[in-house]
Amino acid sequence: MRAVVVRPPAAGVALEDVPAPLLPPGAVRVSVLECGVCGTDHDIVGGRYGRPPAGSEFLILGHENLGEVAEVGAGVDGFAAGDLVVATVRRGCGRCRFCRSNRSDFCETGDFTERGIGGAHGYMAEEYVDVPAYLVKVPPALRRVAVLLEPLSVVEKAVFQGQRVLDRKEPTPGEPKTGTPTALVAGTGAIGMLAAFLLRVRGYEVVGVDRHGDDTPAAKTLARTGVAHANVLAGFDVLGKRRFDLVVEATGSATLDFALIDRLGPNGVLVLTGIPDADAPPTPVPGGALLRDVVLGNQAIVGSVNANRTYFEAGLRDLTVFEERWPGAVGALVSGRQPLEAFRDVLTTHPGGTIKMVLTVRPGGAAGTAP
């Protein structure tokens, strides 16, 4: 079968013929329809990280996925040919309590693998094989946007964890809330955009910030969902003195992360989802002032990575809500779909104004072709 492969730690990417996976009893063969491309893929292609499976010289790239069941192995119930599915990414160590309960996003040993990222082949191939525990069935009505389910699962977890920390304030029986909860989302890539959508659905007043004007596709899409947009290219003074209950970071900029702490309100929570470059020059910060405010303000900083199956399932429910509330808004996050043969351009360039690029591995499928 054809697959997009890398050979970490070397930079570069290629489309090659590789052996198709075998189908053991208890597993499902999936024909890949689409793969989304994100910053992680760009970093792996650039040689910054990535790890082939044990015994392999290459790694099949791709973790954002949508596929169609092609064949069901012996002993598998609940799946049939033609079902649309999205596969989760992380596979647990099998030893810690979280991995044994299919919550490998909280793995305590660090000995997990991640398909398309480290230690396990990904989905940027014509097919893959996996077991039902890691496959989430997708309703045909969501065919057009389901390739965004994996990044949405990351957002679902991040917002849930942030809300759990906010809830540490405990209820105040007989006393109404001070006002509508407020959220700041930093970054208008797919993660940031989906976070803004989700927070709106959760009842937050949301501001999304980036370093672009109001004429970009992202800013226009945010406006459709009732999210205010601000260009912070010249700094956060554009927000005045405004502070927020919840801040979700989706950029991977360490400098920005520290600036966001200053935007937390009393009892506020900053959730970090971006992964900064560990080799970047040190970031000078007024550490004493920042940490003093964190303590005196009952504030918290939380990191969130990956997502287990429950967040994929939550994402399916919210995708349906997004589609009902803002028809076409989620689909607008896909800036373009390119055939698999265009892999090199899609994986080595990031044109301005794009939110999410998708590689089409097999057009169509039982549920039709996504526009």
Beta-strand percentage?
Answer: 25-35%
Mind telling me the CATH class of the largest domain?
Alpha Beta
CATH architecture heading of the largest domain: Alpha-Beta Complex
Mean pLDDT: 95
What class would the helix/strand composition place it in?
A: alpha/beta
Kindly state the percentage of residues in helix: 10-25%
> What is the CA-atom radius of gyration, in angstroms?
21 Å
Low-confidence stretches: none
Distance between the termini: 25 Å
Q: How many alpha or pi helices?
A: 9
Q: Report the count of strand segments.
A: 19
Q: What is the general shape?
A: globular
Number of domains: 2
Reported for the largest beta sheet, the result is: 7 strands, mixed
What does this structure look like?
The chain has two domains: 2-145 and 334-360, Medium-chain alcohol dehydrogenases, catalytic domain (Quinone Oxidoreductase, Chain A, domain 1); 154-303, Rossmann fold. 24% of the residues lie in helices and 25% in strands. The protein is built from nine helices and 19 strands. The protein is globular, with a radius of gyration of 21 Å. It has 371 residues and is an alpha/beta fold. Strands 3, 5, 6, 10, 11, 18 and 19 form a seven-stranded mixed beta sheet that branches. Strands 14-13-12-15-16-17 form a six-stranded parallel beta sheet, with helices on both faces. It has a three-stranded antiparallel beta sheet with strand order 2-1-4, with no helix packed on it.
